[in-house]
Amino acid sequence: MFTWTSRELNAEQSEAVLLPGSVFLVACPGSGKTRALTYKIAYELSRLESDRQFIVAITYTHRAADEIQERIEDLGVDTSRLWIGTIHSFCLEWIIKPYGIYAPELAHGYRVIDQHEREKLLERLCAPYASQRVSHYDCDYFFTTDGYYLGCPNAGKHAIIHRVLVEYFRILAENRQIDFELILWHASQLIDLNPAISVLLSKLFALILVDEYQDTKQIQYSILGSILRAGAGATRLFMVGDPNQAIYGSLGGYPIEIGELRRLTEVRIAEQQLSQNYRSSSRIIDYFGNFNVYNTAIAAAGDGRVYPSLVSYDSGVTRDDLVHEIVRLIRHNVETLGIPPSEVCVLAPQWLHLASMTRQLVVNMPDYQFDGPGMVPFARDIENFWYKLSRLALTEPSPSLYVRRLRWAGEVISEMKDAGIETSRLSRKSFLRECNAIPIDEDNGLAYLRRFFATLFERLGIQISDFAQLQEHHQAFFESSESRIAKLEAEGVDAIGDIAFFRKVFQNRTGITVSTIHGVKGAEFDVVIAYALLEGMVPHFNDADGDTSAQKLLYVVGSRARKNLHLFSETGRKRGRYNVYVPTRMLAACVFNYDDV
Ligand SMILES: Nc1ncnc2c1ncn2[C@@H]1O[C@H](COP(=O)(O)OP(=O)(O)OP(=O)(O)O)[C@@H](O)[C@H]1O
């Protein structure tokens, strides 16, 4: 049986892991919820009695799934009975692929389109409404079990947006395509109309774990609820998250309350807390505690709790001077305080500001490297076959990546099989060997990938054009990547098409991270510098409950920092023709003894 010491898990974490029934775990930032989740999976895998049952873990991102799976493997636990991935992958793998034949819209095949293709189509459909100022940005929507809802708070635009979406859904159906929201909708419909699916799944799943529950949507809770209800206690739930960090409200995410969860699942659920923060100094914790909406318990427990943190806030700097201030702070932290550049993170609420800031930082600090995790130059639709293969094309063989690449090779082979290719003579290892043996001298990222794919298939003796699905994915992958690069170039990001940029996507961070606030979910840095903390951006003008939403964003920003935190509400950013943005109200109202740096 899998065990651990008190050095690995504290008493709160151990208790939550050992509880035999279902658990709802509310965890403060930096309290090791990922660690608790990882150990829970390892513990339950080691106790699994039937070899026909699975442990299912739902994570917010694919990267989180990879990391957790690897940590469990490092703990020496067999993961063959573990399924781990995002809710969308879960719905595809366990509901849509096996039961899609029962949905007329899916029965004849379908292709999942990525965010970028969705945006492109909506952009086209919105074009006739430019004079009414409706753009694809207004067209965010999400499904609940009742149908779709619009994200746009401006009711005056709703009639047009509905018209655009009707056309959007029609075009998708005609082309047998589904987007990410439709994955959830179809899965939910299939489960609703065919109760046997939930019964079957509940027999297969001993335990369902959910990470970051605070950003889960009603339709997702409902899908999981159906399976748990069908299991009548035989399938257990382990749900972890932090309601204070719920920052996807405009897309329908919300932190469910324990009472609602119990009603929905009809199972007994124990409520537990993690309150020891191992990440930040006491001063940082005191600071972000000002934005604690749910009054959750939080105590400094890490070795760095006594660190003499700097917490600064500048609402006087002008927009033009901002970059110099940020450069000064980066240099102070790195060159005076000795913090490694890879431990510095620069945050802003929107990509729009980050592209130009990154450019300016690169010019002002040629001696530093910058990593923009959001600047992915190729289509990252995880359901696209060629994306899956690009992960092998863009990573080098190395001992540290071996397990991960072997898993990726397995996924690619299984997709090839699904597409109708004879794969019996291919093993994961032989496939990796084929990939590793391809020499290509090419600087342009997309040209590199095209040649890599063509060479590999030639070596395998497979004609891509013989397989309609692969062909369609191939076209979608390259079209989408080309327009993504064109868009980033138009925003002024240089060299985005170079192979080096492509490879960076899969490398560990080495330079200073530049990211949106939403993009650093779950991450931690010694130093966090955030700007554009302005009403209308933080909170976003689309956010329904503005002040609460701002508090949660500020809570996320503050709680990423271990040591130092620097905040800016710069002046002089134009809002419309006559106005300027003003500081985020909740930040301006916060009384704190800030440091002069
Ligand atoms: N029992 C423990 N003892 C010492 N350090 C721990 C313990 N549990 C977790 N940590 C450390 O605390 C840090 C935060 O952990 P983790 O990233 O899992 O937190 P989290 O709860 O997911 O945070 P957030 O919700 O803010 O993203 C990590 O560096 C982790 O190694």
From TrEMBL:
GO biological-process terms attached to the record: recombinational repair
Top enzyme category: isomerase
Catalytic reactions on record: Couples ATP hydrolysis with the unwinding of duplex DNA by translocating in the 3'-5' direction; ATP + H2O = ADP + phosphate + H(+)
GO molecular function: 3'-5' DNA helicase activity; ATP binding; DNA binding; hydrolase activity
Signal peptide: none
Ranges of residues in domain UvrD-like helicase ATP-binding: 6-281
Binding site for ATP: 27-34
Any single Pfam family the record assigns to this protein: UvrD_C
Protein EC: 5.6.2.4
Family: Belongs to the helicase family. UvrD subfamily.
Protein name: DNA 3'-5' helicase
